[in-house]
Amino acid sequence: MAITMNRRKFLQRIYQVVLAAGAAPLLSFDELLAADANPSSAGWLRPNLIWLQGASCSGCSTSFLNVEQITILDFLTYFSRVLYHPNLSTATGDQVPRILTKVAASDKPYILIMEGAIPVGMPHACMMADRPIGEWVKGLAAKASVCIAAGTCAASGGVAKMAGTLTGAASLDDFLRQRGIKTPVVNLPACPMHPEHLVYTLLHFIKSKRLPELDDARRPRQFFTHSVHERCPRYPAFQARDFALRIGEEGCLLELGCQGPVTYNDCVAIGYNGNTNNCVRAGHPCIGCAGELFPRPRLYHTHDDPKAKTGVVVKKS
Amino acid sequence: MTATRITIDPLTRVEGHLKFETRIENGVVASARTSGMLFRGIEKALIGYDPRTALQLTQRVCGVCPYAHAEAAALALEDAMGIRPNANGQLLRNLIVGAYQVQDCLFHFYQLSALDFIDVTTVLDYRGADPGLNTMRDWVRNETRSQRIFPAAPFLPAYKGNVSKDKEYSLSAVRNYLESFAVMADLHKMVALFGGKSPHPVAIEAGGVTTRPTIGNLAQYRTLLNRVERFVHSCYREDILAVAKAFPAYFKEGRGYGNFLSFPYFPDASGKNHFFAGGATIAGKHTVLDLNAITEDHTYSYYKNKAGQGIKPLGANRLEPLDWQEFQREEQREDGKYSWSRAPRYGGKVMETGAAARVVNTYHAGRNPALRKLVDRLNRDLGIGLKDYNSVLGRHLSRYITVSLLINRLKEQVEQVEPGVLGFSEKEIPRNVRGIGITEASRGALGHWVKIDNKGLIENYEMVMPTTWNMGPRDASGQPGAVEQMLIGTRIVDPANPLELARIVRSADPCVACSVH
Question: Which of A88, A182, A169 is nearest to A141 (CA)?
Answer without folding.
Answer: A182
